[in-house]
Design goal:
Blueprint lengths: L2 H4 L19 H15 L4 E6 L5 H11 L4 E6 L6 H11 L9 H17 L3 E6 L7 H10 L11 E6 L2 H6 L5 H6 E7 L4 H14 L7 E2 L1 H11 L3 H18 L3 E2 L1 H12 L3
Parallel strand pairs: 1-4, 1-5, 2-3, 3-4, 6-7
Length: about 270
């Protein structure tokens, strides 16, 4: 609706995890580096946590898209799976033909695939999103996957990406064997107010802005206060604030536009 008015090529504040819009604030850059290090150096299990809407999924997609050709990847977005369903989903995402419902056959197929890739010099990485929702039984199945290794290295690198509840889940006594295998960990904190301002500018730039649309400092402060530095909420407020600015026919988004956006999000208008 407002793209032509602001001279934008696409909507800058969609909440979909598009890695093109990833803004590497210092903590997000550190998280990105941790994931790349863990995968490329075959560290086995990697844990990434952050609050709801902190940008974890976008970050993981950026990592997957930027890994070298010598890394084959798979992404599991639905954690509400049984042990057998998880293995089947992994094989499907790696493009392997799956027949039957035998868990042992799935593991043998996966091991054969991993050994073949290892002989070719290809690393393999699996990212499991929303991992805090995995059942203890599935987490134990994931731990057993760490047994797929050679004498020198892990055959598969597994990123467990989830909300802070993931830490609590892994602290359970019955999951201590999995917890002890995690060698790379990172928790993404909220954006600072300075990073919030840069985040907004970055997304506008990626969407094609020539700088004619701006969020003034008071608007940024109000967005930060409301979102507490959470990228998803920042996106929601900014999208609605741009709409309010369009209605008011202004390219300077001020605190009034932001407050209208917040009222819209809270359902008070």
């Amino acid at each position: 609706m407002y793209l032509e008015f602001y001279g934008l090529k696409e909507y800058p504040f969609n909440i979909t995890p598009d890695p093109r819009f990833l803004y590497l604030a210092p903590h997000h850059k550190e998280a990105y580096d941790h994931l790349m290090y863990g995968i490329n150096n075959r560290k086995g299990f990697i844990e990434l946590t952050g609050e709801v809407g902190s940008g974890k999924t976008t970050l993981c997609r950026a990592v997957l898209s930027n890994l070298g050709k010598d890394v084959e990847t798979a992404l599991i977005l639905n954690p509400c799976l049984s042990e057998t369903q998880l293995l089947r989903a992994m094989l499907n995402d790696f493009g392997l033909e799956v027949r039957g419902r035998d868990r042992l056959a799935y593991i043998e197929k996966l091991n054969e695939f991993l050994l073949e890739r290892n002989r070719e010099g290809t690393n393999v990485a699996l990212v499991i999103d929303e991992a805090q929702d995995l059942s203890p039984q599935v987490m134990e199945q994931i731990r057993l996957l760490s047994n797929l290794e050679t004498d020198q290295q892990k055959l598969i690198q597994i990123v467990l990406c989830g909300q802070p509840e993931l830490k609590a889940r892994l602290a359970r006594p019955d999951l201590r064997q999995l917890r002890q295998r995690i060698t790379v960990r990172y928790h993404i904190p909220p954006l600072s107010i300075e990073d919030t301002a840069m985040y907004i500018k970055h997304r506008l730039w990626v969407a094609g802005s020539d700088g004619s649309v701006v969020f003034d400092p008071t608007a940024v402060r109000e967005i930060y206060r409301y979102s507490k530095g959470g990228p998803r909420l920042i996106n929601a407020v900014c999208d609605n604030a741009l709409l309010a600015g369009y209605v008011a026919q202004t390219r300077v988004i001020d605190v009034r536009c932001v407050r209208k956006a917040m009222e819209q999000l809270e359902g008070s208008r």
